[in-house]
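Reposting from the mailing list since nobody answered there.

I have sequence plus structure tokens for a pair of proteins and want to know whether others read the tokens the same way I do. The first protein:
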Amino acid sequence: MISRSGLLTRLMGSGLAVAMLVGLTACGGPPTWVKKGSGVLNNKEDKSFYGVGAVIGVKNEPLAWDTAENRARAELAKNFETYTAYLMRDYAASTTAGDFTRNTEEQNVERAIKTFAAVTLSGVRPVDRYKDEKTGTYYVLAKLSLKNAERLFDRLETEEGKRAGTK
């Protein structure tokens, strides 16, 4: 007979515990990151950028997951560099004809926005995914961790400090 802790150890080793946790999360509704969306997490334990991608209406499940992942990466890219062109045209006219009692007015408002992001991000990886069974929406959470970059900057500062001390 396997003890409860022994069973947990076996499950952890096989990766089933992760699948069970994801399954339990799915039963209780969407994870908090689905509602929170893309952005920056800047606390002591984790300094990262997150992107949430979603797709609905795609029946081919592998294609849906790939699309949601690509959209999550695009959400991350928008945090770094985005070109936006904005144009708004507003036209209004009032015309009076003949006896001045009949007035014709015309209005037209148009707005066009074009957004473009192009950036190369290294180290972006999907860290979680969720499928809303009711709507058929696939969600992927992608993460770009700044921990390695921070560690490198700390090492650089240490080395610069050593150099400054030897001069």
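The second protein, same order (residues first, tokens after):
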Amino acid sequence: MHEYTASDSLRKHMLAVEAAMRAYAEHFEDDPDRWGLAGLVHDFDYERYPNAAHSPTEEHPAWGVRLLRDRGWPEDILQAILGHATYCNVPRETPMARALFAVDELTGLVTATALVKPSRIVHDVEAASVKKKMKDKAFARGVNRDDVLLGAQELGVDLDEHIRFVVNAMRGVAEAIGLAGTPAPPAREPVR
């Protein structure tokens, strides 16, 4: 992740996705380390190979998957990573793959919702406010709302519950993803 990703915001996104993936792995009684790794590295190549053309075989995530495959990464993680980009046309056949797709865009929406709060704290984010922001197309324009809806549907979870679940997972890593709040400015000494 650090070798290929310099952007602090992209690293925080990957950590948020990792947290949500770990939580869903536990929910589905699967391996949180394995699912967490899928979430952590799913976008490691995005900064260098952003894939504006949405090529299924070049740039993100295909480039990264080829590198990980060469390094011996498990095929189920690689398939989940390919499946999180709809333009790769890789079916999301496993719960891990469906979860990665379901949490990827949603973590971005939750982050954006937290960042417009005066506190900038994910603990102050409620599912209802995320859902309301989701309806505002001008808010967090980079978040694909259709993917958020499809992700919950494919995962077989209610959208409101899915949002609450992801918010709760992100609360567990609030400091690491920069959403633990903005520190209060230091108290000023009175002038004498």
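Reply #1 (J.P.):
I read it the same way you do. The mean pLDDT is 94.
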